[in-house]
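Morning - magnesium ion inputs below, output right after.
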Amino acid sequence: MSGSSLVGKLLAGRYHLIERLGRGVTGDVYLAKHPVLGVRFAVKVLGEDYSDDVQATQRLKHEAELVSRLNHPNIVSTVDFGETDDHRFFLIMEYVHGHSLKKELRRLDPSLMPLKRVLNLLKQLCHGLTTAHDTGVIHRAVKPANVLLSVSPSGDEQVKLVDFGMAKTISDDGQSHVTRNRQIIGAPRYMAPEQLTGAPVDRRTDIYSVGVVAYLMLTGDLPFHGKTPIQVVAAQQSKPAAALSLLRPTDEIKVPREVEKICMRCLEIDREKRPRHVSHLTEAILMALPRVPDEEDRPVTITTLAGSRDEAQAWSMGSADPDDNSVGPDDTAEVDLADLEKVYQAHFHHQQERKLSQLTPEQKSKRLWNVVNKKALELAKLLEKRGLATGALSSYLITWNALAEQEMATQTEIALHKEELNETDGKWREKTASVRDALLNLRLAHSHLAEDRATNETILANLDQQIDELEARLGGATQQTEEQQRLLEHHINNLKNDLQTIQNNLGETQLLMLQILRQDKRVDMPPDIEEAYATLENLLRHV
Ligand SMILES: Nc1ncnc2c1ncn2[C@@H]1O[C@H](COP(=O)(O)OP(=O)(O)O)[C@@H](O)[C@H]1O
Ligand SMILES: [Mg+2]
């Protein structure tokens, strides 16, 4: 670990170090701001103790070179590389605003991340690794601390794989993760047997580590324990990892079979039995994802309706008269959980429902309101179909249909715009790949030439000028993309506001329909309609 902090320093005349983001083995990572561009970067600086360490310096240079070849939204990108006046090498990366998966898992402990979120994060990690592997790069240190969680331009959670300090190319020979004094660098519990024993590694070594990360996220536990490499190897060799489904708490949504199967295959000790490519894991996840339910409630009409709870209670069929204080709001505000559970179970069937006891009373009440809305709507439609609906009910049904259609259309439009926004990052990468590559090469050349006393000043000045020009071009392209992103963000926000209005109107329409239904209730209704009324009545006693 490096010693004194560099906060406050200006690196290479253009990166102002603001705070320390993380401490690594051979150096620290800082948040930096470019004083002219105003853009934030992350800077990895080799520690003081390592400034003379050729191996550590080479590793950082190597990291810069490898990462500059990888253009993917799920991989952190490098923008610069250089040396401070006191000969400490540094690497400039895009700044990832967020925290590591390691921290997130610690934060959630002891509960598990919702399955949908896990799969979404794993999918992105696999996407990033696929690009690395297809480019011939093996990461060799895939673990939660090197998976940063950030937010994509459209506001979705985004994975950024960092720390290619241990990475190697497939064509590299044995240069391994074992240091001069034969110590293994890294986290043994995430390492494949071949990596722990110093055997040659390949893509499947990373695939093993992804398997460990997946296992941990899905069960809350590691497949093999041990503090030292030897202990981990012993655990790996003694018996296969326990089936993931055995460790997963029973009240959690089950992991789709194809995902479980492939995760367990990633953990095979014999790498011949592991999937050959990360994309096999991605495919399994993509196939399973649509079947995994969202655990969050749809933030739609229910919220609005729940807000009108008093009104609904006053309306509630058991106490039709608002002045009837026998069921006052204060009494009913206390929801009887056992009772609610019964009603809930009777009306809310969802095959893969999260265990009821895990929901908060608010969540349950919200879901109940969902059921009320659904039942009321069904009843209204039934009345309409039988020609029993009054003019008012019919017209509210028409309004409801129109609003529901608008809601769907707006949601689709938001999704499309979000997708476009997410793609801007990738497009920027593509568009600027050659410029960024050229810049990095020029800077590397500059640093090599500057070290050589025989180098002519004019050559350096010429290089400086070329670097300036490329920087200006990169700045221009970045500004263009940022402008485009701002426009898209603005558009999405407007659409979100529209959606909110539509959903509020939907909520009001639903409430009005409820009131009309109640007014329209007559004694001589057909039995199925009577029954529908009874169901609704029963439900409304509990909201
Ligand atoms: N681009 C980045 N943006 C924000 N934080 C980062 C970035 N890169 C690294 N970090 C932080 O610094 C820590 C150490 O960085 P890492 O590249 O993993 O170095 P090491 O090789 O020392 O482990 C990370 O765990 C993370 O918290
Ligand atoms: Mg790291």
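Note: Residues 10-94 form a domain with the Phosphorylase Kinase; domain 1 fold (CATH 3.30.200.20).

O.
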